[in-house]
Specification:
Porin, 16-stranded antiparallel beta barrel
Amino acid sequence: MSTKLVRILGNGYFAGMTRVQKESTGHMRHSFRWLGIFIIALPLSTSLLAQTTTTTPPKKKRVKTAAAAPAASQQDVQTLRDLVLAQQKQLEAQNQQVHQLQDQLHEVLDAVQQSNATTQKLQGGAEQAQATAAQAQQSATDAQHAAAAATSAAVSATSATSLLEKQSKAEQTKLEAFQNVLGRFRLSGDIRMRGENFTQTGTQDRNRARVRIRLGLDGQLNEDFVGSIALATGSLGDPTTTNETLTNAFDRKTFSLDRGYITYSPVAHSWLSLTGGKFPYLWQRTSVTGDPDLNPEGFDQKISFNYKGFVQNFTLQAMELLYNESSTGQDSYVLGAQAQARLKAGPWTATASVLNQHWNRPDALLQATAFEVGATTTGSSTVGSLPVPGEGQGCSTNGNLPKFAPCALAPNGMTNATFIDASGKPHFYSGFDLLDFIVNNQIQTGANKFPINLILEYEQNLDAATHPLSAGKGNPVMTDLGSQNKTYSGDFSVGRAVRRNDLLFGYAWLRQEQDAVLASIAESDQRAPTNILQNRVYANWKVRSNTLASFTWWYGRTLNTNLENNAALFNNWGGFVSNAAVAGKSTISAPGQQEPWLNRFQFDLIYTY
């Protein structure tokens, strides 16, 4: 039994070992289990074998001895009984051990069967796992290929992203540079709609609607230079207005260069300013010496110093204005200078200035080309008038002035004294060396919105003729009158037009003699350029921060109708005269009569941007 058990255990062990060797390293735990069983069974089998071996030989020896020995004694029998009982007990113990071994063997066999079943399941699971692993390996391979493709795509995407980032940075840099450039420029301008009415005794009323559009761009070229350009509506032949009348069968309106200049103001020398080009007025002035819509051309140099105390600022400047370049003769230009001081004492602030301008060779203004005057007709005294495609006021034909170009540039009428030389060329009777004094006062009141403003001006032409010319036949000199060379004006107003709902009310008075200033460039809205007595009432209302409503009433007449080229004799504003007794559209029947007052009403709405 023990030998068989050993054989069984050995066979099971070796069979188990064989199966274990065939299995993968993942089943090593089952091999260790069989090894434990064998180690337990081996000593038991050895013990049984030893007992069986030691018991058998004595039987054979005693049998052989008993046959030859004499009859046993009682003691021997008892001893034999004791020995048999001892062997029986030993056998019972051995049988009990055998039963225990059998039970253990059954448990081992059950364990082996269970292990085999588990092994089979594990083997099936292993095969399934192997298949799953193979599938997983394939999936891993596919995933690896996909990952490689994704990596390649990611590399490409990264490269593309890098390129896009570089392009984006480059575009951002360009945009920032453009924004920096754009940030140095400021858009400005306005749109004005105007309704206008003229009334004068003896003439037909006139009504018209007008529009003015201006668009400017001012730029900080660098820390020392400022540049500006501006476009504006208006006839090319009229430098004194940017208005366009709503007429001419809805034709397009002219929009042309109104300003273009560069100013040098070095940061290191803030007291210095140099300007060149076509620029706005850079000195203190009023409309006496030039229409507000006119922009002079040439150069200006200014030095300015600020102080503390009663004198707040002192400024000196010089100007060289070019108004006629000639390829066949001498040029015409203006040389001028102004001194200016700003004073302050308590609520009172004043800016006082004195300006001198000398006009060299102004006769060029009386011999302007057809382009300069925007002539609509041409011709001669022999062939008469022929139409040309001009867009302006044409020639000013007051008195004996030429009717066809070259002729006088005087968009609002030539009211200065003129004469014709032996060759037929027109000339100014006076020269023009203008001396202009202005004091601009402002007094702050208890109400910030209602300061008091007062502008006083005295202007004199130092180069005017001693006596004027008469309007009579042949235009004789009027020796009973002195030089017609002075201007007096005052402008009083209360309020301001700066912020929303600000109000400004004012009244201005002007007395301007015939040769006090050049008629070609003087204020265009008053009764006439010169030789006038003019009143002006005005009111402004700041409707919005960028919208202004304005009303102006011009109330004026000719100052002296005895003088040559006065507006009463030639009615420069164009109203039809029904009872003219003098050649032309006169508003009087004879020189020396007082002209009726001309009323000119203007209603404006101005949008500023």
